[in-house]
């Protein structure tokens, strides 16, 4: 027998706000979290726009040993997870008495690797790198640290799938619970923001051109889009079997009803249409919902010319004859990369549960592809019960999730 | 640096960097037990001593260290031999 999988908690630490309430407000008012970072300009970035969050001060919450083993991305994931567990009504005592797992998306630890390498090169002695470096400079840093901090005893691994990491983490958690392997899995995505994490990405020339105010830089689907804006933070979603949630008397925020994936089998960075369309189509079929029941699509659209065009084509192809509301919250946040697939579940669930759709900021002029979508460029007060969330990444990895109000 | 200066600096490092409660620091107290040192903490101790005193400790140096005073003396000897 397959379990139903529900969301019983969410937590967020993003450039739109440092908790659920702040983020909900920013989404509703269409407030951008993007800034112009002079440091990036001075360092030689072609584009200095970025989403930005403050580094949390965790001295009063975590021990020295715990703090020296975590880097920026884990700090964000930690804060988001504390909020999500509280939101879910899961206490430390509960975690000690029950098997809870963690699947988190993360795909870089650039700053930690560079810090450790700099020390090693300077000192020429590995003993002087320090004990925390290894635990900060592995891709699985988020899950290895959070599983230790929260004393987790279930599934414990990091999902690295480029900009679809957070979405696949939720999808895989969904499959684990659906298949009866776990009752509760902490899922999410984290993304470091420091310039070292994004320098080589900036070097590809795919970031938004400078010369406009920061809130105008990210313009998914707009005819004049010219590149993405990097961003980051942490987003956590507590996935739980319906049975477990009912047993705990937990508040159910939404139900995950479909997850699918595909791989483009093509270029490493140039997306296609068929891969994303396949992931969307399969997720919808799996969910058992009718196409016209889907009230909102949270698009992956990052504001790159080809990526957005191909996603628009894919959505049109899958939804032919029906036009659900579409927006890309990356217009507000920038591209939260490894975190994005998880944060966009938090954003979309907040919207679904508060009866609105956040605007696709800066969608001013449609092009041939975006003109065929029902793009929302101003906050729309609208009830909807089911949404689709897309996430695509380098290497042609695609993930699509279908989430339903319960 | 004399013994007192070294003692003061080490205690300051332990309190500020290792976040140790000042009450547990005393000449004759057991260093490992008082600081609840594990294998990773020794690595950090080596880093902090090197960055503050310019001397490198190796694993063998800790073999005969029992009390805080043993530790102060070890650093004093290493600093003097620089």
TrEMBL record, chain A:
Pfam families: ketoacyl-synt, Ketoacyl-synt_C
Superkingdom of origin organism: Bacteria
The UniProt record lists the keyword 4Fe-4S: no
Assigned keywords, A-Z: Transferase
GO-annotated molecular function: 3-oxoacyl-[acyl-carrier-protein] synthase activity
Matches recorded under InterPro entries: Beta-ketoacyl_synthase (IPR000794), Ketoacyl_synth_AS (IPR018201), Ketoacyl_synth_C (IPR014031), Ketoacyl_synth_N (IPR014030), PKS_Beta-ketoAc_synthase_dom (IPR020841), Thiolase-like (IPR016039), Thiolase_acyl_enz_int_AS (IPR020615)
GO biological process: fatty acid biosynthetic process
CDD domains in alphabetical order: KAS_I_II
Occurrences of domain Ketosynthase family 3 (KS3) (ranges): 2-405
Family: Belongs to the thiolase-like superfamily. Beta-ketoacyl-ACP synthases family.
The name this protein goes by in its record: 3-oxoacyl-[acyl-carrier-protein] synthase-1
Protein species of origin: Myroides marinus
From TrEMBL, chain B:
Highest taxon of source: Bacteria
Signal peptide interval: none
Keywords: Cytoplasm, Fatty acid biosynthesis, Fatty acid metabolism, Lipid biosynthesis, Lipid metabolism, Phosphopantetheine, Phosphoprotein
PTM-bearing positions, type O-(pantetheine 4'-phosphoryl)serine: 39
SUPFAM superfamilies named among the record's database cross-references: ACP-like (SSF47336)
One GO cellular component, as annotated: cytoplasm
Presence of the UniProt keyword Transmembrane in the record: no
Domain Carrier: 4-79
A single GO molecular function term of this UniProt record: acyl carrier activity
Post-translational modification: 4'-phosphopantetheine is transferred from CoA to a specific serine of apo-ACP by AcpS. This modification is essential for activity because fatty acids are bound in thioester linkage to the sulfhydryl of the prosthetic group.
UniProt-annotated location(s): Cytoplasm
PROSITE patterns xref list: CARRIER
Keyword Cytoplasm part of the UniProt annotation: yes
Pathway membership, UniProt: Lipid metabolism; fatty acid biosynthesis
Role according to the record: Carrier of the growing fatty acid chain in fatty acid biosynthesis.
Family recorded in the similarity comment: Belongs to the acyl carrier protein (ACP) family.
Entry protein name: Acyl carrier protein
Gene of this entry: acpP
């Amino acid at each position: 027998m397959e379990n139903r999988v529900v969301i019983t908690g969410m937590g967020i630490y993003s450039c739109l706000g440092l908790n659920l309430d702040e983020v909900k407000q920013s989404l509703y008012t269409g407030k951008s979290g993007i800034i112009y970072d002079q440091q990036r300009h001075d360092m030689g970035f072609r584009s200095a726009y970025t989403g930005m969050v403050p580094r949390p001060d965790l001295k009063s919450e975590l021990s020295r040993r715990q703090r020296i083993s975590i880097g920026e991305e884990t700090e964000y994931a930690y804060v988001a997870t504390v909020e999500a567990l509280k939101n879910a009504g899961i206490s430390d005592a509960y975690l000690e008495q029950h098997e809870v797992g963690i699947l988190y998306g993360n795909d870089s630890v650039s700053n930690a690797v560079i810090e450790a390498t700099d020390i090693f090169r300077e000192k020429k002695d590995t003993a002087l790198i320090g004990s925390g470096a290894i635990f900060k400079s592995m891709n699985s840093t988020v899950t290895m640290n959070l599983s230790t901090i929260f004393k987790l005893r279930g599934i414990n691994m990091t999902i690295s799938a480029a900009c679809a990491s957070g979405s696949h983490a939720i999808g895989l958690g969904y499959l684990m619970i659906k298949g009866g392997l776990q009752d509760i899995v902490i899922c999410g995505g984290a993304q470091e923001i420091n310039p070292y994490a994004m320098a080589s990405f900036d070097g590809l020339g795919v970031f938004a051109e400078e010369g406009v105010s920061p809130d105008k830089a990210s313009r998914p689907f707009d005819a004049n889009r010219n590149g993405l804006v990097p961003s980051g933070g942490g987003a956590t979603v507590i996935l739980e079997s319906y049975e477990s949630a009912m047993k705990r008397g937990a508040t159910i925020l939404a139900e995950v009803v479909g997850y699918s994936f595909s791989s483009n089998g093509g270029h490493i960075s140039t997306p296609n249409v068929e891969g994303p369309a396949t992931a969307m189509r399969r997720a919808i079929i799996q969910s058992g919902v009718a196409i016209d029941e889907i009230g909102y699509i949270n698009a992956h659209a990052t504001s790159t010319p080809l990526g957005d065009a191909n996603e628009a084509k894919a959505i049109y192809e899958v939804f032919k004859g029906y036009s659900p509301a579409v927006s890309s919250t990356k217009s507000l946040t920038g591209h939260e990369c490894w975190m994005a697939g998880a944060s966009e579940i938090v954003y979309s669930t907040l919207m679904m549960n508060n009866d609105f759709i956040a605007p696709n900021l800066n969608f001013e002029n449609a092009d041939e592809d975006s003109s065929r979508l029902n793009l929302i460029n101003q906050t729309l007060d609208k009830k909807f019960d089911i949404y689709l969330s897309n996430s695509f990444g380098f290497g042609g990895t695609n993930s699509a999730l279908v989430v339903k109000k319960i | 640096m004399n013994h007192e200066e070294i003692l003061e600096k080490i205690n300051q490092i332990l309190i500020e960097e290792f976040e140790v409660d000042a009450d547990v620091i005393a000449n004759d107290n057991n260093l490992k037990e008082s600081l609840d040192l594990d294998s990773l903490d020794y690595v950090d101790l080596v880093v902090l001593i090197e960055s503050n005193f310019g001397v490198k400790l190796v694993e063998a140096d800790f073999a005969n260290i029992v009390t805080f005073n043993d530790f102060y003396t070890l650093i004093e000897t290493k600093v003097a031999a620089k």
